[in-house]
Amino acid sequence: MPRVVKHPEVRRGELIAAARALFFEKGYEATSVDEIIGRAGISKGAFYYYFPAKEAVLEALAEQMAREAANETQALVADQTLNGFERLDLFLKHNRRLKVERAPEALALFEALFRPENIALYHHVFTRISRVLIPLVADILQRGMDDGSFLPGDADAMAEILLGLTTTTHDSVAALVGAPSEEAFQVAAAAFQRRWVAQGIVADRILGLPEGSIQFIEPGFAEAFFAGWRLKQAG
Amino acid sequence: MPRVVKHPEVRRGELIAAARALFFEKGYEATSVDEIIGRAGISKGAFYYYFPAKEAVLEALAEQMAREAANETQALVADQTLNGFERLDLFLKHNRRLKVERAPEALALFEALFRPENIALYHHVFTRISRVLIPLVADILQRGMDDGSFLPGDADAMAEILLGLTTTTHDSVAALVGAPSEEAFQVAAAAFQRRWVAQGIVADRILGLPEGSIQFIEPGFAEAFFAGWRLKQAG
DNA sequence: ACAGGACTGACCGTCAGTCAGTAAATGCCT
DNA sequence: AGGCATTTACTGACTGACGGTCAGTCCTGT
């Protein structure tokens, strides 16, 4: 094969992109290094020139996704004129809007991340995302505790817990994207919606807000998600 | 090798036991089927006579551990004379006592389950344990909501959330058992303790109990755990 | 011209899984 | 009770694929 030299950053990016596509498609374990290098158009040696092991690509990919998530959020926390609750509300509104606006990509992403064979991928990605988001959320909580919007407490630990809550929806989401039939999906979607409503109430109680203050998802999100899913099944 | 025939249940049990020891020792991925059959004193073919794939042993092991956890808990929920809070308190007391009494085994178990290479094992085990415990906890919560011990709400979803909370301590426990030095362990132990205290407060608020009502771990648990760890490091 | 960074591809050891066959247990007929 | 047939439990050599290595080659900037 002809030898093509590229800037290391470019090559690295291409390798991660190739891995990303394949990991999402077939899972981390089921993707071989040979497939990654085939897609990236590069030799085995070059792969191991950039990454010490297959798992390192997984780490790099998780890192990249965590950075993307952090970048989108960071700007929101900057606004100094808002109090704690307004800030949290903005943060949540932003996330809700993202979920709806990007429903197609989100569907694909979730379908990839929540498939049983992708637990390792899921865990890596969410651990890293949590790690970057915890300080941001902790900051929001701390200000809210200081200005009386929220009940006082250990802001860091509570940020960790609140974010942890969202990652424990794994099973309910997995049931959604793994639903084998429309009936199963309907059941899973109902459970999903119930779970998130309960989670909002739980968050309200943790922070000492009136019930209904915090909403993680739009009321009709499961259905909207469902529309995309049905489209995919049909196509 | 001479051929020894045993009752299928016995053989299956021996295979799971051998796998359990090896998975705990070196992790799921790092354990080969050859090692499992070597320890169990059986041939490759016999292994695949009992399990369709390596992963099936992992499932079976997770199943076994989930059943053990459920059996120990089930008896507690049976007592009809107690109200919701007393029942929950009993459940938590039982778990706290278990953690202390079985600190040595718990240490070994945790050290195995929370090592980074064992994420798959961890996830399988805890998903299955959650699945059997959720109905039990939901039952406790429902009775407590009915008799006014707890704030009303979706008992199933809240049971799921409360149990989910405990699994999101993964990182803080992983930091504990993966600590490379005594200093790192001390830091991790402090974070661990803080995290669990916050979690107790969170649970109080979710159920509408006065702060301090729920305690997941004994005040000195991290230190007790630490003693065992130091012993191991020294030995 | 040459040093060192970027890259190649044949090769290696290991591992999960297969399979054709075999020994022991069990049922069944006489 | 003893022979025969069927089923169950098991053996171990083998395969293909995979992650990772390495000796060496090409390319680019200085």
Description:
The structure is a homodimer of 235-residue chains. Chain A has eleven helices and no strands. In chain A, helix 1 (8-26) packs across helix 4 (54-78), helix 1 (8-26) crosses helix 6 and helix 9 (170-177) packs antiparallel against helix 10. Chain A is an all-alpha fold and 235 residues long. The first copy, chain A, has helices at residues 8-26, 33-40, 44-50, 54-78, 84-101, 103-113, 119-146, 155-167, 170-177, 182-207, 221-234. Chain A is globular and about 65 Å long. Chain A folds into two domains: 8-50, Homeodomain-like (Arc Repressor Mutant, subunit A), CATH 1.10.10.60; 61-234, Tetracycline Repressor, domain 2 (Orthogonal Bundle), CATH 1.10.357. Chains A and B meet through helix 7, helix 8 and helix 10 of A and helix 7, helix 8 and helix 10 of B. Chain B binds a DNA duplex (30 and 30 nucleotides) through helix 3.
